[in-house]
Amino acid sequence: MKRRVVITGMGVITPLGHSVGELFASQMEGRTAVGPISKFDARTFPTTFASEVKGFDLAKYMPDVTRYRHCGVNTRYALGAGKQALAEAGLLEPKGDRSRMGVYLGSGEGTEDFTSLATSTATFTAPGERTADIRQAVGLLFKRLNGPQEAEQEMFSPSGYLADAFALDGPFASCQTACAASSQAIGEATEMIRTGEADVMLAGGSHSMITPLGITGFNRLTALSQRNDSPTTASRPFDLTRDGFVIGEGAGLIVLEELDHAKARGANIIAELTGYGSTADAFRMTDPHPEGRGAIRCMADALADAHVNPTDIGYINAHGTSTQANDAAETAAIKAVFGDYAKKVPISSSKSMLGHLIAAAGVAELVISVMALLKGAIPPTINYQTPDPDCDLDYVPNVGRELRFRHVLSNSFGFGGQNISLVASRFE
Amino acid sequence: MRTNSRRTVLTGFGVLSPIGSTPDALWQALVAGTSGIRTVTLFDASELPTHIAGEVPDFSAKAFIDKSYRRSLNAMARTVELGVIGAQFAIQNAGITKGTISPQRIGIEFASLMGATDLNDMAGASKIASPDGQTVNMTAWGSPGLNEIAPLWMLKYLPNMPACHTTILHDIQGPSNTQIPGDTAGLIALAEAARIIRRGTADVMVVGSSESRINPVSMTRFNLFLQMSKRNDDPTHAIRPFDATRDGTVPGEGSAVFTLEDLTHAHARNANILGEVVGWAMGVDRGKKGPGLARVIRNALTSAGVHPTDIDHVNAHGTGSTLGDAFEARGIAEVFGRDTPVFAPLSRFGNMGAASSLMELACSVFALKNGQLPGTLNHEKPAADCPIAVHTGALRTVTKPYALKVTYTDLGQCAAVVVRKWDS
């Protein structure tokens, strides 16, 4: 008999609130946080807007805040979300066997010192040239970069600081599988508890790419919506006129715990993590397989892992990025897995309001899914105006609804072809 | 708890390293005591305080990549190229050809990182946005600067690209994950792959790693915050693991990729077995004191069902850093004292970051397989703060069937894996 894994705490730092309650309330109300990019002057970029975290102050969470003064936002947001989750779970105080409690974070790269990179390169690039004198550029870059700040941009930092700050001395991992990363972290952390390697895992993700080079990269790939005249309606998953995703940022962490461990310490059990599926498309770098080959199998695997039938799923929280390719492929995959029931099951995309949190997207959406399960309320897909013949399912258009159900499926499909599906269930 | 679990064996190995780019060449170099550390040639690094490194000589992805995929090399930084070709070598070495294994039953776990951008990729845009080289005009960067950036620029550097290309090239449709926790990433990937096979989700996992630290931005950054050896005039003696005269590490680059396979599956296709992965553990030693690393080592031994006295040798990270080596030695000493030989191969090829732990592990897999343990290069004067028995000098006969691999990050994240010599 597999060890059962339950959720005993959840925390988020998102553009739609710095608590789970705020995030879910804004989702039910159909609010969006999308607006002009404020982190740098993006007025002449093809895309000028994003879904930004506002008003985040690490000092509210970490009394020794100066310790993290050189850290990037991935570490900062993760600490904020992690503290909320552990506090809710009653695991903030360093009690219990901490060597049995670990961290699994889906996280991104550190933030580049864009100004130093660009100015050092420019100084030794002749006008009209496209190559720099590398020897001299490197010499200048060495003078301009800030050593302590660069040290904190290493990719092990966010997961390492979470373990360090909250005395989570047990197993750790940190993955970066683009938009699937935090869902994959939750799935594999669940497996680590099932095998007995850990009793508690703080799992989720933290990521921001709202930086000059992040937006440059996505804009050059033409992945982002360019609806600059109407940012709040730009994220329109499953709508015929969708033109790309809206980039967001943030963090989410949940406390996964072995059932008996949670019971023994009298923890409040929020829900059970019952199913996990993981596959690769093996198709293209940035495009999903058009028929959703990998997505079909990963949803089916997650259902089988949870020992539920398709008709047991009361709500699907879609990956729903608002790109032409994803939304059509995901719809096709849902139809293949759910058959006739695909037309009946409510499906919505949190990204219509929240934007795409990249490595942190999956966990934020799982948190919303779990809240929907608890509250018996399904958030809408907003900005849904023009039906797409290829996307002909019930996307809960524009208005949320009340519905009680027992199992929710959350999808995350990443750039590079990683597909992850999670099933969360009412705890019974 | 693992009594009924499936056994996981290593059945293929692909390598690109400063001292050899076939399994045989790597082994011969280990036996010969060759060092791959030299003055950087991939770019002019002479302005940096430390400008020596372990480069993979004469590496050309173009020479190996499938012709139909050659165009995609434009979207691969060196880290990605090393990973893709290393994985191809491993799959070939394992005797796996397309169609012989159901695509759904083979997955991939890679260790990598976000690559640092090539400065020339942003030279044109930078000049437009910063004519004076002092400040950046963002409106000029956004337009017209952005047009100077190649459309696929970002894809060259994404951490999951080695795994992504490998899934496409070899039709791998099982789980795909990419681990990023620095020097531990390779062992984390290996442990996760073993877990995936044990729970029956896949029969074969490509478990790989790649990183190149030898580019302008990475070398500059490491010179700023890592303790780097100043022995530019004596590169082959620069990295001195656990030695009293150690003065820092040296960056490297490479790719080490295994295929990990369910034992029954490997037997059924008559695979050549290189060794068995029998146990692992991860954990955090906050403040890098030593007892936390010792706990991780003990947990790894327990998970493998062995005792310290069963271990032929400990394979250490041994980066040559003053604080790092002392920390690692304290942890190892707490479990093994001076009773078990410690082997640190990194001094031969430099610290490859994400690729380091699997590259180092490979040295022990082949040591067990060949029955001989090479010596640790440049360990000449044992350091008082490293109370362990570092094996140096001539080949030592392997006497026990198990080896323990240890590694860690600068935030005290520790990982350990136990491998067993294969007896058919």
Kindly describe this structure.
- The complex is a heterodimer of chains A (428) and B (424).
- Chain A is α/β, with parallel strands linked by helices and 428 residues long.
- Helices cover 32% and strands 19% of the residues of chain A.
- Chain A folds into two domains: 5-111 and 153-425, Peroxisomal Thiolase, Chain A, domain 1; 114-151, no CATH class.
- Chain A is built from 13 helices and 14 strands.
- In chain A, the strands form three sheets. A ten-stranded mixed sheet of chain A has the order 5-4-6-7-1-8-14-13-9-10, with helices on both faces. Chain A has a two-stranded antiparallel ribbon with strand order 2-3.
- In chain A, helix 11 links the parallel strand 9 and strand 10.
- In chain A, helix 1 packs across helix 13 (361-375), helix 3 (114-123) runs antiparallel to helix 4 and helix 10 crosses helix 11 (324-338).
- Chain A is globular and about 65 Å long.
- The two termini of chain A are 17 Å apart.
- By secondary structure, chain B is α/β, with parallel strands linked by helices.
- Helices cover 29% and strands 20% of the residues of chain B.
- Chain B has eleven helices and 15 strands.
- Chain B has helices at residues 23-32, 78-93, 123-129, 138-142, 161-170, 185-198, 216-225, 263-268, 291-304, 322-336, 356-370, and strands spanning 8-16, 37-39, 52-54, 106-111, 176-179, 204-212, 253-262, 275-284, 311-315, 341-343, 372-373, 389-390, 396-397, 402-408, 413-420.
- In chain B, helix 9 (291-304) packs across helix 10 (322-336).
- The longest helix of chain B has 16 residues, at 78-93.
- At the A-B interface, helix 3, helix 4, helix 5, helix 6 and strand 5 of A face helix 3, helix 4, helix 5, strand 5 and helix 6 of B.
